[in-house]
DNA sequence: AACGTCCACAACCGCAAACAG
DNA sequence: CCTGTTTGCGGTTGTGGACGT
């Protein structure tokens, strides 16, 4: 019934890995590199399924793995990233060198999640964020987003959609250049203004790395992206400063920000310039 | 010492995205 | 394009150790 398993269970070891299996896997990957997980067990002589090998390597055997002792700085980062990203463990882990998504997830489920829940009963968590009983739900449901990110076909996306303010239609006639002619302005096919598309290049840290892709507005048939005609990344909004700065700006983009935080991180002038609320 | 309960973490599972042919 | 395969992700479960009774 249901799906067939990813691999035949017969003759395949399950459960905890032995030291011998670890050594075989490590040696094989050091010699042959990662990838081709499906064939790896057979080639390496392991009685494990490929998925299990991959997981064991990524979460445990990789030489650059840090284990245990999550520092307060890391913890703080996890909390902030979780606030922004929800349960996107791999993205969160990607910002914590040496940490794996599994470790972050376990840490959250066992320590931070409970702590956050505990804080919710005293109304607010860190920085005044409310962590309610719905915390476990995906954050698309908990964050209402005045600004969205456009997801292009590329996995990495660095465009933030700033929709028109409610009750504040933009009048094309006010400008010499028609609004819809401005690069990075989004329009429907009937020419209706849908929002302003901004590029955020954080010097290798793209806003899309931080923002949940599910906040992103899918590029459906009704929308075409005028900025594409202008080439890829825009260089006019390039910020190259600290990670805190990036986070503060992202929080602002999501409409969930504290003024003092933005001032502290030097983001306030940019927020003003971008005309964010 | 024996048993039960709780907790942290490793591992598994199913789904979906990405990729290859 | 279409289809099959591989990889990556997030939720869930299983297990072993710590702790309490």
Topology:
Layout: H1 19-32, H2 40-44, H3 50-61, H4 72-85, H5 89-94, H6 101-121, H7 139-142, E1 148-151, E2 159-162, E3 185-188, E4 193-199, E5 201-202, E6 205-206, H8 207-210, E7 217-218, E8 223-225, H9 243-253, H10 259-264, H11 268-274
Parallel strand pairs: 1-7
Antiparallel strand pairs: 1-2, 2-4, 3-4, 3-8, 5-6
The chain binds a DNA duplex (21 and 21 nucleotides) through helix 3 and helix 6.
Largest beta sheet: strand ordering = 7-1-2-4-3-8
The tally of beta strands, per DSSP, is 8
How big a fraction of the residues is strand? 5-15%
Q: What does the average pLDDT come to?
A: 57
| Radius of gyration over all CA atoms, rounded | 23 Å
Shape: elongated
Q: Which parts are unreliable, with pLDDT below 50 for 5 consecutive residues or more?
A: 1-6, 121-242
Distance between the termini: 53 Å
Largest sheet: 6 strands, mixed
The H-and-E topology, N to C, reads as HHHHHHHEEEEEEHEEHHH
Helix/strand structural class: alpha+beta
Specify the helix fraction band.
Answer: 25-40%
Tally of helical segments: 11
């Amino acid at each position: 019934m249901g799906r067939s398993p990813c691999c035949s269970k017969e003759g395949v070891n399950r459960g905890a890995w032995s030291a011998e299996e670890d050594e075989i896997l490590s040696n094989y990957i050091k010699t042959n590199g990662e990838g081709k997980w499906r064939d790896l067990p057979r080639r390496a002589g392991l009685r494990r399924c490929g998925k299990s090998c991959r997981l064991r390597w990524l979460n445990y055997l990789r030489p650059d793995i840090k284990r245990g002792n999550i520092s307060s700085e890391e913890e703080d980062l996890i909390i902030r990233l979780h606030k922004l990203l929800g349960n996107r463990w791999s993205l969160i882990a990607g910002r914590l060198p040496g940490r794996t998504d599994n470790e972050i997830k376990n840490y959250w489920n066992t320590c931070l999640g409970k702590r956050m829940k505990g804080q919710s009963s005293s109304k607010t968590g860190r920085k005044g964020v409310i962590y309610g009983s719905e915390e476990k739900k995906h954050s698309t449901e908990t964050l209402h987003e005045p600004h969205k990110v456009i997801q292009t076909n590329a996995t990495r996306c660095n465009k933030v959609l700033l929709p028109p303010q409610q009750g504040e239609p933009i009048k094309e006639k006010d400008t010499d250049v028609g609004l819809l002619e401005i690069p990075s302005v989004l329009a429907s096919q009937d020419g209706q203004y849908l929002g302003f598309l901004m590029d955020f290049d954080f010097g290798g840290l793209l806003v899309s790395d931080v923002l949940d892709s599910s906040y992103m507005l899918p590029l459906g048939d009704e929308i075409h992206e005028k900025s594409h005609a202008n080439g890829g990344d825009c260089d006019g909004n390039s910020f190259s400063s600290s990670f805190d700065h990036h986070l503060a700006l992202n929080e602002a983009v999501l409409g969930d920000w504290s003024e003092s935080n933005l001032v502290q991180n030097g983001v306030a002038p940019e927020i003003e310039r971008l005309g964010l609320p």
